[in-house]
Amino acid sequence: MGASIPQLLVNGVALGAAYALIALGFVLVINAVGAVNFAQGDLVMAGGFVAVTITEYLTPWANDNLPDLAFIGPRASAVGLGLVILPLTMVVMAVLGLLFSALAYAPLRHRPPVSVFISTIAVGLILQHGANAVFGPEPRVGPPLVVDGNFALGPITLSIQQLSVIFAAGCLITGTGLLLSRSQLGRQLRAVAQDPEMAEAIGISAGHCIAITFALAVALAGSAGMLLSNQFFVAPSDGGLFMLKAYIAVTVGGWGRLDGAAFAALLIGVFEVMMAAFVSYVMAEALLYAGVLLVLLVRPSGLLRETIQRRT
Amino acid sequence: MKAGSLRNVGIMAALLIAPVAFALSAGGYEQRIMTLAGIYAIAVLGYQLIFGRLGALSLAQGSFFGIGAYTTGLLGIHLDWAFPASFLASLIIPAAIACIIAIPVLRLESHYFALATLGISQIALLVGVNWTEGTGGANGLYGVPPLRILGTALDSSEAMLVVVWCVLASAVLAFSCLVKGRAAHRLTLLREAPEAAVTAGIDIGARRLSLFVASAAFGGAAGALQAHSIGVVSPAVLEFQVMVSILAMTVIGGRGHPAGAILGAVLLVHLPEWFRFLEAHYLVAYGAALLVAVIIMPEGLAGLFRRWLVTQERWAPEPPRTSKPEVPTTLAVLHLVGLCKRYGGVVALDNVSITVVPGEILGLIGPNGSGKSTLINVASGLQTLDAGEIRLGNLDLTGMPAHGRARVGLSRTFQTPVQALGLSPLESVLAACPAGLDERRAERHAAACLSAAGLTAPAVPTTSLSPAEARRLDLARALASGPAVLLLDEPAAGLTPAERDDLACCLKHLTDSGLGLLLVDHTMDFLLPLADRVICLATGSVVAEGPPSMVARDPAAIAAYFGEPPP
Fold it and tell me: Span A59-80, mean pLDDT?
C-alpha cells in the first residue's frame, strides 16, 4: 500500500525540515571556527535521548496533575506535552553545547581546523557508545510534539505530528535567522565568524561568541533529535547518517551559507522520502552519495558560491 | 649512514621484534591480539602517508582495508587463488580503485575531500551489504582459506603472527623508501606551505595521487591479512568503525613516523582488553583516548620520543663553501602579452603587456588595487587568466600549471612568505631544488642559493627567523629552481633601511648572471635607484613606462601614484 503523493510530500518536507535544523547548526560551527563538527549527528541522537528521558519524568507528573481531557484521546493528559519537552530539550542541549565547546574546541583553538575535526570525531564516539551503555542499542520512541493521530483533508490523510514538526522547525529556522540578522548578539556572532581578530579589536569577546554559537548549534541539533524521535525513533547508532546529510546539505548549499544549507537539507529530505517510496531506501542513499560526488566532480567548490574564505 | 638514521633503524627493529617476542611467549590469545595489531599497523602506515605526511584527511582508508579483505575472500573462495597471487590482487585492486576515485577527489579542498572520501566509503558499505550474490550480503563470506606459503598452510596463531609482522616490516621499509630524503622535505613543504611548494616546482597533484594510491595498497594488504587471519569477511570490515580505529591509532601513535603506527596499533588493539569492565562499550574509551591525545599530545606517542626518533634526516650544518649555484641561470625573455583578469565586475588587469629581459630589474609600481599582485599571481600560475599570453623565451606558459612554470624558469616570492616550520631553512630550499640533482649536488646548490639570498645561518630553526630573514629564505627558495625570471612581490615591505640596502645589493648581484627581475614595491627610495626600467599600473592598465627618473616625472604616474612630483 503506497502513500499518496501529498502525504509523501509532507513526510519529505518534515524530514527535510529536521535535516535543515541539523545543517544550520553544522554551518554555524563552520562559520564560527572554520571546522567541521563531526559530532553533529551524534548530538542529534543525544537530543532524542534527552527528549525520551524528559518524557519519562514528565508523563507521570502530567498524568497526576493535569486535568483529564478525555474527549481528545486515551493519552489525553500528555497532549501538548511535547511543546514543553522541545524547549526543555533545547535548554539541556545548549548546556551540553557549552560543555562540548569547552572540551572539544577551546583547547584546540590555536591549532589547525583538522584537530577540531578529529576531536569532534572523538566526542561523537563517546556520545554514541555512552548512549549505548546507558540506554542500550534498542531504538526508543520519543514524544509527539502535540498529539499522535491523523486528520483527513478530503481524500488525503495527513499526520498531525508531521505537520507540527514542519511548523516547529519552520519557527526555529526563522527564529535562528532573525536572531542572526536582527539582534545585537547575532551581529556579534556574525562579526566573530567573519574575522575573530577584528571582532576582538572592537570589543567583542570571540571566545564567548564561539561558545554561544556552539550552544545554539547543539540546541538546534537537539531540537531536530526531539522532532525526529517520535516518527523515526532514536537509537545510539543513528548519528552518522544525520551528520552525513548535514555535511552533504552544506556542500550542495554552498560552504558557509545558512540559507543554502537549509534549502539543500529540505531537498535531501524530500528526495530521500520519494526515492524510498518509489524505488528503495538503499537506492536513495546510494544516489545521494553518488550525487554529491557528481556535484564535487563538476563544481569542486560546491554548487552555490561560497561566501566565506576557505580556511580548512 | 648517519648516526641518527642508524639509531632510527635500531629503534624500528626493536619495535618490530619486541611485540612478536612478547606475544610468542604469552600464548595463543595474545598472539591473535598482536596479529591484529600488526594488521592494523600496516593500514595505519598507509594512512600516515596520506594524512600524516600530506595532511589530507581521507576517510576512505577503512574502505581500502575492507576492499582488500573482500578481494582476498572472493578470490580465495570462488577462484581458489592463494597467496601470493591473491595478496597481490588485494594490493592492486584497492590501488586501482584509489586511482579512479582520485580523479574527482584529489583536487578538492580538505573539507570536501573528507566528505567525498566518506561518501565513497558509504557507497562501498552499501555495495558490501546489498550485493548479496557477490559479497554474501550481511552474512559475509565464510571459509577464506588460510595463508599458504610454499604449499604449507599457515593456520597456527604463531605462524600467522610472524607472517603479519614480516609483512609489517616490509611495509615499514616501503614507507621509508617513499618518504626519504628530499621527498620528505617536499611533502612537509606541500603540507605546511602549499603555495610556496607549488611555485617552487613541486607537482601537488602527482604527489597526492602517488601517496593516495600507495595508502590504498597498504590498506588493502592489511585487509587481505585480516581475511586470512580470521577466515571470514563480513561487511563489518567496510564499516566506519574501521576508519575510526585507523584514525585513532594514527593520531594517538603519531601521524608522521612509522614508530607511531606500531605504537598506536599495539596500544589501541589492547585497549578493549584493559577496559573489559566497559564490555561492548569500550569504544567510549577509544573516543576518550582520541580526545585526550589530540588535545595534549598533538604529535602522538611517537612525538614523546621525538628526541630519539628522526622523522627526516637532518642536514649536517657545515658552512656553505661554494657560492656557485649548481643550476645555471638560463637566459630567457619573459613576455606577458595582453593580460586580462576580472573578479566579477572588477577589472584587475586590462590588456597589460610587459617584457622582462635577462639581467634587467623592472620595477612595477602603482596604487593599492592597481593589479600588481594579480599580475604576479596570474604570471606564476596561482590564478587563471581570462585572456592573454605568457611566454618565456620560446616556451608558451599560458596553459601551464604553476609547478610547471617554476620548473621551466619562472619563479616568484610572496608578499607575506609562509614558511614550513617543520623544516630548517636549508631543508626548505632543498625541497625546492630540481629533482634531477643528486643529494650532494642538491645540498651544495641549496647552500649556494641561501648565501646568494644573504641568509648566512641556515641551520637555525625556521621558527626563530626574523621577518627579514624569512624574506631572504623565501628568496632563496625561489632561486633554488634555477629561474630565468624572478617575480618579487614587495620584498622590502617591513624591512629596516639597513636591511633594505642589503637586499638591494643582493638583488643587483643576482642580475649579474643574467637573471631578470620583476620587482613590485612601494618603497620608492629602494625601488627607483635599483630599477633599470619602471612601469606604473593604475586600475589594471599601464599608465607610464620608462627609466625611473622619467616615470617619476610622468604626469600620468604622478596623478595615479606619486601624488606630487619629486623635488
Answer: 62
**Contact present, A312 and A260 (Cβ < 8 Å):** no
Tally of domains within chain B: 2
Task: Kindly report which listed range (A37-41, A43-47, A108-112) carries the lowest average pLDDT score.
Answer: A108-112
Find how far residue B176's CA is from the centre of its chain: 15
Q: Which of the 8 DSSP states describes residue B299?
A: T
CA distance A102 to chain B (A): 12
Among B126, B251, B284, the residue with its CB nearest the CB of A130 is B284
pLDDT digits over B476-522, tens only?
Answer: 999 998 889 999 998 888 888 888 888 898 898 888 888 899 999 88
Q: How far is B198 from chain A (nearest CA, A)?
A: 18
**Which residues from chain B sit within 8 angstroms of residue A130, using beta carbons?**
281, 284
Looking at domain A5-298, which of 1.10.3470, 1.10.10, 3.30.1330, 1.25.40 is its CATH number?
1.10.3470
Residues B498, B361, single domain; the answer is yes
Q: Residue B497, Cβ neighbours under 10 Å: how many?
A: 11
Integer Rg of chain A from CA: 20
Q: Predicted confidence band at B153 (pLDDT cuts at 50, 70, 90)?
A: confident
Chain B: closest CA distance from residue A115 (Å): 7
What is the ipTM metric for this complex? Answer: 0.87
Helix axes B439-452, B467-480, angle to 10 degrees: 130
Whether B207 and B352 map to the same domain: the answer is no
- The whole-angstrom separation of Cα B93 and Cα B422 is 35
Count residue pairs from A and B with Cβ separation < 8 A: 113
pLDDT score of B316 more than 50: no
| Range in B115-119, B148-152, B353-357, B529-533 the model is least confident about | B148-152
**Residue A75 C-alpha, separation from nearest chain B C-alpha, in angstroms:** 36
Q: Omega of the bond prior to B317 within 30 degrees of 0, cis?
A: no
Which one of A114, A248, A309 makes the best mutation probe of the B interface by having the most chain B beta carbons within 10 Å? Answer: A114
- Average pLDDT of the segment spanning B416-432: 85
Report yes or no on B129 lying in a domain.
yes
Angstrom distance (rounded) from CA B561 to CA B384: 27
| pLDDT score, position B8 | 81
**pLDDT classification of B1: cutoffs 50, 70, 90:** very low
For B123, the closest of A36, A247, A290 (CB atoms) is A290
B115/A248 Cβ within 8 A:
yes
Q: How far is CA B101 from CA A76, A192, B29, B121, in A?
A: 55, 37, 39, 11
The CATH number given to whatever domain includes residue B396 is: 3.40.50.300
The model's pTM: 0.86
* B100 part of a folded domain: yes
Parent domain of B338: 334-416+484-562
Contacting residues of B for A117, CB less than 8 Å apart: 57, 114
Q: Which residues of A touch B247 (CB under 8 A)?
A: 118, 121
If one compares B237 and B218, the residue with the highest pLDDT of the two is B218
Residue of B110, B126, B248 with shortest CB distance to A285:
B126
